[in-house]
Each structure stands twice: as structure tokens, then as C-alpha cells.
Amino acid sequence: MGDVRGFIKFERSASKYRPVEERIGDYNEVNITIPVEELTEEGARCMDCGTPFCHSLGCPLANLIPEWNDLVFRGKWEEAWMRLELTNNFPEITGRLCPAPCEESCTLSINRAPVSIKQIERAIIEKAFGEGWVIPRPPETETGRHIAIVGSGPSGLAAGQQLRRAGHRVTVFEKSDRPGGILMYGIPNFKLEKDILERRLDQLREEGVIFETDVEVGVDISARYLKKKFDAVLLAMGAGEPRDLDVPGRDLEGIVFALDYLSCATKGILEGKTSRYSGQEEQDSQREKKFLSAEGKRVLVIGGGDTGSDCVGTATRQGATSVTQIEILPKPMDWRESYNPQWPYWPKKLRKSSSHEEAERRGILKQEWSVTVKEFRGKRESGNNDMKTVGEAKLVRVEWKKSGNGYKPTEIPGSQFTIESDLVILAMGFLHVKHSKLLSELGLEFNERGNIKIDRHYMTSVPGIFAAGDSHTGASLIVRALNHGRRAASSIDSFLG
Ligand SMILES: Cc1cc2nc3c(=O)[nH]c(=O)nc-3n(C[C@H](O)[C@H](O)[C@H](O)COP(=O)(O)OP(=O)(O)OC[C@H]3O[C@@H](n4cnc5c(N)ncnc54)[C@H](O)[C@@H]3O)c2cc1C
Q1: Residues 10 and 72 in one domain
Q2: Which pLDDT does position 347 carry in this prediction?
């Protein structure tokens, strides 16, 4: 701890964003890296607590936060980066996208603003890339063992890098045309520009990780082939089954899952098409082609979480005429103070994202809590009487009443209302891993939530087959997926002797 009074002398340097008017017109990252001088003061704010909750309770990766805070304060950036690399394969990703539970559990957060840990993390890794410290580290010896990883999201990538560095041959199979999982096609460019991800993928490639894209395991290659050809298999397939709505009118055109909508938008940007991009692949149906851009549309986003917020930001940029976001849960506590009312735990408080700020500035945002959908109705289009396309949603307000050990939503009589909408985006999270042909061919057991069951060594019910990330936990966070990938890799390495 370099400056014992740092937390009294200096105010927190919070995240900085580009001006709304500027960022609304493009898809570039909204955040800006904080200047190094400011971060030196920020590092000085760390109190080097006897029990660093940020490291031990907040961060699933157990990042050595007080150590690198101090090194940044002392200007020892390379050492700070070496400490950061010990626990985190991709700090440039978490330094941009993590909700930072470490900051909520920072001891300063008891009664004042916490250390900007996420900003420091981001600055360290960007300095490391800038200085050329981040180079490929291929193994010095080869073990001759070959591991298949199914899925190239953060858990598969972290495991792949760890296993390759341990000297194993690693092939990552990905059904999509580009590796990265949700980092590539779920998370919009304005939160993570894809060249940041590509920069890291290049490092993995140069270390010798092999990527086989456009290969759906279970369809293009069989479970039998995997078992026969590889010494171990890691399933890192994500939580692929989106939560749906079972209400009348659900099959109308113009009602899409959030991930399909967001993937389509990102694909359009990567392929150099305009923000009005509205087609996916050749084989996609006309229905998708027609609806996957929000331009000129009244958009209804169902789901008040981060995915819903990403849809708000994307629809705002595409030129939606209105965006309504609804959530079945009650409105969280509107906490304006800078400290954490539920320290050291993650507080349930109202959060306003950069996307909400943008839609508000354009005057197109409406948010509703404790609301659910009763029905979708079609609209009549010119020269067409069959009302195949969504035109409105019938909604109803709910009250959360105690039921057994929990609470249950109950409709409030007479509270129905209607919202006109041409594009409905379902952003209600995921149920569990997709119960695909691959998983049934492998004969795996599932846990009580329908995800892949594993033991404490990340091994599934079938010896030699491991699972990590959202395919085991259900939809979660990048930082948890990274942690899982690293731990599963370590178990696979031990398993292979
Ligand atoms: C829109 C959205 C935004 C999010 N934003 C954030 C955020 O800002 N911060 C945060 O911490 N978390 C965020 N999350 C959650 C986070 O992205 C996930 O928790 C994380 O990506 C899970 O990583 P994973 O490696 O388990 O799986 P995924 O990232 O889901 O990757 C799984 C990969 O496996 C592939 N796959 C599946 N089956 C097969 C098969 N049979 N053969 C070959 N490939 C297959 C899929 O195509 C996919 O690419 C977000 C999630 C969504 C949906």
C-alpha cells in the first residue's frame, strides 16, 4: 500500500464514456480508457485490506487486485500485468465487460465509492498490449495428447489456452463461422469491438490452438468420433436454450430471440453492411430477413437484464422509432449513493446502462416493471389481410405475492394495457444447455436445472468428458466462464497424467 491516505485524498475515477450524441451514430466502443495519471491516484485509493474481499469474495477468478493496484500506484506496470496474467487469461474482456462484483465488495464501498478496479485492469492490459509484452507463449514440449473443446466462448478459449500452454494439442470446434461464442456474436460492438477479441484469438492461434469453425459437433462430427480421436473432451457449449413465452400469437412474424437479433446486427457490421442490415445467412427464412433490423420500427424488448439493455442500444442505433423494455420482476431499489447498501455482496439496485442513456436522449425509451405478456396480435399490412406480422402486445401488471418459500407474480385485475409493436425481442435469459443429439449420444447426466452435471473435477458422468462455463452453470457471467475454463483445464491436465 503506497499511500496510506490515498483513499481520503483522492476521489474515484469512474468509467468514462464517449458523448451520447457521438456514440449513438456509430457502433464503436462507448467506454474510454482512463488516462494513466488518473489511475495512479486510483491505485493509491486501495487500502490493501487485511481481508481483501475484492479478491476473495468478489472476483470469481481471485484476481490479485490489491497487489496490482499497488504496482500501478508505483508505476510498475509490467509487474502489474504479470500479476494480472497469473489469474486471468483475457483481462481486456473482463476489463470491459465484467459487472465488477469486485468493486461492490471493495471495503471502501461500505460508505464511499469503491476503487475503480475494472478501469485499472483494463488500463494494465491495454498498456501490456501497447508495450508489446503480450506475446504468444507456445509450449516448449509437446505431450502428444489431443483434446477436443466443443464451443469457443470464454470458457472454451480459456481452457484451450491453458491446455495448449501445458503442451497438449488442442482443437476447438465451433458451430458458428467465427470463434468467440457470445463474445463474438452476442455482445454488441459498442461494448466490445471485435478486433479486441481477434487480437487475443490471434495469440491463441500462434500458440498452436486449432480452431475448426462451421463445425457443429453432434451433426457434422459424431460423439463416437470425438471419443475415438481425442484423449479428453471439454464441453463448453454455453446455455443454448433461450427462455420462450407460451402465449397466444407467439408464432407471429417479427417476434425474435435476443441472441438472433444481436448476432444478426453484429454480423452485419463485421461484413461491412449498414446498420440497416437485416439479413442473416442464405438459408435463413424470409421471415428473419424481413425483421432483424429495428429501423423505423416500434420495438418491444421483453426482459429487463443486460441482454435486454444490449437490444435497446442496438435498436437505438438502428433507428427504432420507439423502444419499450418490460420486466416481470419489480423495479429494484433506486439507489443513487455511490456506496453499496448490501456490502460485500452484489446489491439488487436499479442500474442505468449506457444504452438506456442513449435511448432516453433520443426520447424513445419507456421502461416498465412488474409487467408480463398475455398475448400478441397481428396487424393488417397493405394489400394483405392475413395478419401474419406482430402489431401489438397485450400486457398486464402483476403483483408479487408470498407463496411457500418464495414469491409468485399474480395478475392485477383490470390492469391490462396494449403496446403497439412491429418488432418484439425476447430477452428473458436461457433455460439451460441445449439438450442436443450430441449430449444424448454421449449419455451424459444433467443436474436439477437441466445443465450438464459435473463432479468437483469438472468431469461429467462419462469418464474423460468434462464440462465448463454456462453449459454447466446455466447463463452466468464471462468471469465465471473464464474461471471454469481454467479449472477444467487443470483437471484435464491432471486426468491425462
Ligand atoms: C447478449 C448477451 C450479453 C452478455 N453480456 C455480458 C456482459 O456484458 N458481461 C458478462 O460478464 N456476461 C455477459 N453475458 C453472459 C456471458 O456472455 C456468458 O456467461 C458467457 O459467454 C458464457 O461463456 P461460455 O464459454 O460458457 O459459452 P458461450 O459464450 O455461450 O459459447 C458457447 C459456444 O459454443 C458453441 N456451440 C454450442 N454447441 C456447439 C456444438 N454442438 N458444436 C460446436 N459449437 C457449439 C456456440 O456456438 C457458442 O459459440 C452476456 C450474455 C448475452 C447473451
Answers
A1: yes
A2: 95
Q: How many CA atoms lie within 13 A of 132 on its CB side?
A: 0
Q: Is residue 404 part of a domain?
A: yes
Q: Are residues 219 and 250 in the same domain?
A: no
Grid cell in block for residue 282: 442464405
Q: How far is the CA of 457 from the centre of ligand 1 (A)?
A: 22
Domain contains 84? yes
In CATH, what number is assigned to the domain containing residue 438? 3.50.50.60
The answer on pLDDT for 289 being more than 90 is no
What residues does ligand 1 touch, defined as CB less than 6 Å away?
97-98, 150-156, 173-176, 181-182, 186-187, 191, 216-218, 236-238, 240, 259, 262, 306-307, 310, 436, 438, 469-471, 475-479, 481
- 265-284: pLDDT as tens digits: 999 899 876 444 343 443 44
pLDDT digits (tens, 9 = 90+) for 308-340: 999 999 999 999 999 999 999 999 999 989 999
- Arithmetic mean of pLDDT, 58-67: 97
Among 428, 450, 477, the domain-final residue is 428
Q: Are residues 275 and 394 in the same domain?
A: yes
What nine digits make up the cell of 409?
A: 407474480
Task: Quote the CA–CA distance of 255 and 31 in Å, as a whole number.
Answer: 31
Q: How many Å apart are CA 265 and CA 355, to the nearest integer?
A: 15
Residues 216 and 312 in one domain: no
d(CA 461, CA 450): 14
Distance 311 CA to ligand 1 centre (A): 16
Pull the grid cell for residue 54: 475484492
Same domain, 372 and 490: no
pLDDT digits (tens, 9 = 90+) for 253-268: 999 999 999 999 999 8
Q: Whose CA is nearest to atom 14 of ligand 1?
A: 477
pLDDT confidence of residue 273? 63
CB atoms within 10 A of CB 489: 29
Q: Does residue 462 share a domain with residue 410?
A: no
Query: What distances in angstroms separate CA 159 from CA 83, 97, 152, 231, 389, one per listed residue?
Result: 19, 19, 10, 15, 44
Do 221 and 249 belong together in one domain? no
Per-residue pLDDT at 209: 98
Q: How many domains, the chain?
A: 3
Q: What is the pLDDT of residue 282?
A: 38
User: Is 316 in the same domain as 199?
Assistant: no
Residue 176: closest CA among 257, 260, 287: 260
> What does the alpha-carbon distance between residue 206 and residue 194 come to, in Å, rounded to a whole number?
18
Residue range 434-447: average pLDDT?
Answer: 95
For 204-269, give the DSSP string: HHHHT-EEE-S--BTTTB-HHHHHHH-SEEEE-----EE----STTTTSBTEEEHHHHHHHHHHHH
